Amino acid sequence: MNGAAHASGECPALDIGLLAPGRAGSPTEHATSDQAFLQAMLDAEAALTRAQAAMGTAPASAAAEVTAAAVAARFDARALAVRARAGGNPVIPLVADLTAAVPPEAAPYVHRGATSQDILDTAAMLVAARTLDLLLADLALLEGELARLARAHRDTALPGRTLTQHAAPTTFGLKAAGWRALVLDARDRAARVRGGLPVQLGGAVGTLAAAQAYGTAGPHAPHAPHAPHAPDAPDAPDAPDAQDLTLRLITTYAHELHLSEPDLPWHTLRTPLADLAGALALTAGALGKLAADVLTLSRTEIGELSEGGAGGSSAMPHKANPVRATLIAAAAQRAPALAATLYASLPAADERPPGAWHAEWEPLRDLLRLVGGAARDAVDLCAHLQVHPATMRAHLDLTAGLLTSERVIVELTPSLGRARAAELVSAAAAKVRTGGGTLADAVAAELTALPPRPHGADGPAPPVPDLTTLTDLTDPTHWTGCAEALTDRALKRR
């Protein structure tokens, strides 16, 4: 059956997410579909006609007819895609089909004064706005889950790890608060970008010349053209300035679509895309950091965390894979390269670019989809994340107090001096690593072996800790510094 469909030229759904489980079924997948982009282009076209009607340069009936016809389900998206090859973008065949779909009296007001890039750029901003709204909602949910974890595990100690090795103790609450801080950073940047997404309207080369001409001529212009008159004849007293009228069209257009009004047409000034790429790449990286930590701490030999409802294996029944974290990590791996393509399109040539603009479409959609899917997965991951404090505590004891070596140096410095204390603790740590025992025992032995204080030294020798004190000093749960206070401070951020 599949072979027959291929041979006959039939084209079933092309992109159903079979190889993209990270975004499959997510709200952002629907918001970035071909149908969603088609609807956004139609929304842009209809809003342009409505804006002109609001300005009095097009009949209200035309705006109503174009808006009624601008429904994606009425158009053949696949046919538009194939026909787009002729002109290099889908707006050209779409304008033809939309013009044919409205009554003849409304047809002249379709796409009037615009160019293809105006519509496709505006549609991209609409799709981005609608997707960012979904993303921001998920980031808000994620922030709440991470705040819950940070509060619940404010005092839960675990080994801090640097360069893959146990370093010094920290708390899981501080780790979760750090994840939350990254998510809030991403939220703030995404919200700022969302608020500034602009419409695009410039006409052929960004001068709005056609929009100006249409707005000041014809029966629906605010004033009819004047007959030739003597050079000293006064102008009509109520004639609005043509350029001001045209610039007001951008304001009205932006209002119709609930997007921002740009200072200039940005056909080759691609800051909006670069800002969007940066915010999305940052969000992917923030979520990726969370996933990287979960993947490490859920390894079988570590087991400090585990995913609730973890995934299985097609071959090994015993597996409980951290699937959500894996999919988030995959998104974080891909996002920088997609963002790089959008950044690479910044040096767009002339007043309309050949290739640079066209190169943006697919990476932008992939980036929106990836990050939206990753945020969805991160909410699910953190809502069901299982934390294992007993395992964390056991791991703190694996190195018999070595995680507290820095603290022991601090405590010995008043009596031995910083350099001598560091040398003594280093020697004790080496004995623990090679011969076993605890750091407290090894330090006590090193202190006992110290030569007596030189005769005639000024004053009594400062006391050195005894074994009982050393045992308390080398308890890792007593060496988490300001982790709890830092967690509390981080949770004050809203």
> Helix amount, in percent?
55-70%
Given the structure, what is the number of helices? 19
Strand order of the largest sheet: 1-2
Q: How many strand units?
A: 4
Strand content range: under 5%
- The helix/strand series, from N terminus to C terminus, equals HHHHHHHEEHHHHEHHEHHHHHH
* Average pLDDT taken over every residue: 91
Main sheet overview: 2 strands, antiparallel
- Estimated radius of gyration: 33 Å
Indicate the overall shape: elongated
The termini sit apart by: 55 Å
Low-confidence stretches: 1-9, 224-231
- Overall SS class: mainly alpha
Protein described:
Helices cover 57% and strands 4% of the residues. The chain is mainly alpha-helical. The strands form two sheets. A two-stranded antiparallel sheet has the order 1-2. The longest helix is centred in the first third of the chain and has 37 residues, at 116-152. It is elongated and about 105 Å long.
